[in-house]
Amino acid sequence: MSFMTQRTQEQARRTAAPAVRLSFEQSEFDARIAKTRQAMQTAGVDLLIVSDSVILEQAYIALTSAEQEIARRINVTLYTSEEFRQRREQGNPFIAKVLAGEHWLLMGKTDEPAATR
């Protein structure tokens, strides 16, 4: 049986990822995930991540099991919130196509400040 000392527990707490606070109910998130999974079964997968804390390598590592599960490659594009805001304001064709076309938000909303700044 293994155990953690108080010091080890404190170190684990400091290095653990911060909790994500959702701006919507867990049931809404679950419904979005289910809808996304259904769509992914019949279409290619392009994933746009807007985050100031995610590193592209982290995203690829996190998506490895999802790619295996759906037997499709997930194409990831990562922007900081500032990059996203600038590209959106400049009328970037990729951003315009994503926002105008059919897409699913897994977290946040396009009209929230975090999605537009």
Q: Mean pLDDT across all residues, rounded? A: 74
Question: If you compute it from the alpha carbons, what radius of gyration comes out, rounded to the nearest whole angstrom?
Answer: 17 Å
Give the amount of beta strand, in percent. Answer: 5-15%
What percent of residues adopt helix (DSSP H or I)?
Answer: 40-55%
Name the overall outline: globular
Please provide the count of β strands: 2
Q: How many distinct folded domains?
A: 1
Distance between the termini: 49 Å
SSE string: HHEHEHHH
Oligomer classification: single chain
Instruction: Point out poorly predicted stretches.
Output: 1-6, 113-117
How does the major sheet shape up? 2 strands, parallel
Please give the count of helices: 6
Strand order of the main beta sheet, please? 1-2
The secondary structure category is: mainly alpha
Descriptive notes:
The protein is 52% helix and 10% strand. The chain contains six helices and two strands. A two-stranded parallel sheet has the order 1-2. The protein is globular, with a radius of gyration of 17 Å. The chain has one domain. By secondary structure, it is mainly alpha-helical.
Topology summary:
Elements: H1 6-15, H2 26-40, E1 45-50, H3 56-70, E2 74-79, H4 81-89, H5 93-100, H6 113-116
Parallel strand pairs: 1-2
